[in-house]
Amino acid sequence: MKEKKTDRAKKIKKVPGGRGIINGYFSFNNTILNLSKENGEVLCQVSAVAEQVAETTIKKAGDYGIQKVVLQVRNPGLGRDVVIKKISEAKTLEIEELIDKTPLAFNGTRPRKKPCSMFEITISNPKKVEKGSLAGVYACEVYLPDMDKTSSIYADSLDEAVKNANDFVDVYLQGKITNLERTLVRKDDIRKSLEEELD
């Protein structure tokens, strides 16, 4: 297990307000967690198997006097669910908000599908997970019709699950709108170019 420390000799200073951010980066062979202040200043970084990473980060948060965190996760991976469960069960740490920052792919080659509206997105009512590594947390399912995909959004409470699901949809729609705006700009440029050639 690798752990980066800024200065071993310095005495650890408590974080004012007791709040921080945990950023999780996941892949199929590694898990990295960054513990930082609310202003983004990194306090420590831990890289190892998911369970060890979560336990070490929870301990470090206690050392820095952090009691409440925003947990931000990015990318799927074998350790993602384990980390979320471990941190949510920690007695010394409270997750104020769980944010999924996994980027959504809007382009690429896909089979031709039946046209559908992006506004047919559906969000299920949050349900408490009863089994598995995430037992005890709440989950909302978000269905994206144009991708024919359902994503699960997790949180510690009903309200947080709904909020995180809505934030997820906002990011998705913003990406679709940005992509549409770029397409319209390209079409407008082509039209102007053709008009100039005809003149």
Automatic annotation (TrEMBL):
A Gene Ontology BP annotation from the UniProt entry: translation
Alphabetically ordered keywords of this record: Ribonucleoprotein, Ribosomal protein
A Gene Ontology term for the protein's cellular component: ribonucleoprotein complex
SUPFAM superfamilies attached to this UniProt entry: Translational machinery components
Stored InterPro entries: Ribosomal_uS11, Ribosomal_uS11_sf
GO molecular function per UniProt: structural constituent of ribosome
This protein's record includes keyword Calcium: no
Protein name per its UniProtKB record: 4462_t:CDS:1
Native organism: Cetraspora pellucida
Lineage, top ranks: Eukaryota, Fungi, Fungi incertae sedis, Mucoromycota, Glomeromycotina
